[in-house]
Amino acid sequence: MERRNTVSKTYGSSNNAARIDTSKLSLYPLPGDMLADLQDAFTFYDKEDTGYITIAHFRNILHNFGFHNMSKKEIDDELKRADSQFLQKQSVDIDTVKLVIGYRWNKGGKEEEAKESFHLFDKRDRGYINVNEVKTVLVNYLDFPVNDNDIQEFMLQCDPNSSGQVGFKDYAKLYLS
């Protein structure tokens, strides 16, 4: 009972909180590491442990989970798909966050992320990458040392016919696995 009172004081009545049908969550599964990251982000903003975060904080989470290339209108349209009354809400719970991110991830977000990642390697937009580009990017972006064996292993996983060039399709297959 005390938790409900805290929620009401902090975010207004429960009518102003976005809640979803949790059975929808299974329709749009997320990888375990992404779920853990979402939970961490939600917990970061839910400092009072009410189970809700503000819409402004929710938008920050969306930005960090693949919505950064979208306009405000596109984001609002996406949010309305989760709940037609969403934009009138003042707060959201973790299940709503999971549903919105899961919907986007499963409806093209993971492919978009793979393309963005591939573009880090393919700076000249040739449609393929080679061992030198892989090495340069991994050395510059990873926090741990990368050796030639690591690079060769990566190339073997992405380049099944050993051509020395990795196209987006083969890269995406590994990236999304």
Q: What do these coordinates show?
A:
The chain has 177 residues and is mainly alpha-helical. It has two domains: 2-109, EF-hand (Recoverin, domain 1, Orthogonal Bundle); 122-175, Recoverin, domain 1, CATH 1.10.238. It has helices at 2-11, 32-45, 55-67, 72-82, 94-121, 131-141, 148-158, 168-175; strands at residues 17-18, 53-54, 91-92, 128-130, 165-167. The strands form two sheets. It has a three-stranded mixed sheet with strand order 1-3-2. Strands 4-5 form a two-stranded antiparallel sheet. The longest helix has 28 residues, at 94-121. It is elongated and about 55 Å long. The N and C termini lie far apart (44 Å).
Q: What is the residue-mean pLDDT, rounded to a whole number? A: 81
Number of strands: 5
The radius of gyration computed from the alpha-carbon positions, rounded to a whole number of angstroms, is: 20 Å
Number of DSSP helices? 8
Provide the helix percentage: 55-70%
Order of strands, widest sheet = 1-3-2
Q: Which ranges are low-confidence, i.e. pLDDT below 50, for 5 or more consecutive residues? A: 1-15
Secondary structure category: mainly alpha
**Beta content:** 5-15%
Termini Cα gap? 44 Å
Indicate the CATH topology of the largest domain: Recoverin, domain 1
Instruction: Give the full name of the CATH homologous superfamily of the largest domain.
Output: EF-hand
The major pleated sheet works out as:
3 strands, mixed
User: SSE order, as H and E?
Assistant: HEHEHHEHEHHEH
* CATH C-level name of the largest domain: Mainly Alpha
Overall structural domain count: 2
Organism: Stylonychia lemnae (Ciliate)
Domain EF-hand: 33-68, 109-144
GO molecular function: calcium ion binding
Protein name: Ef hand family protein
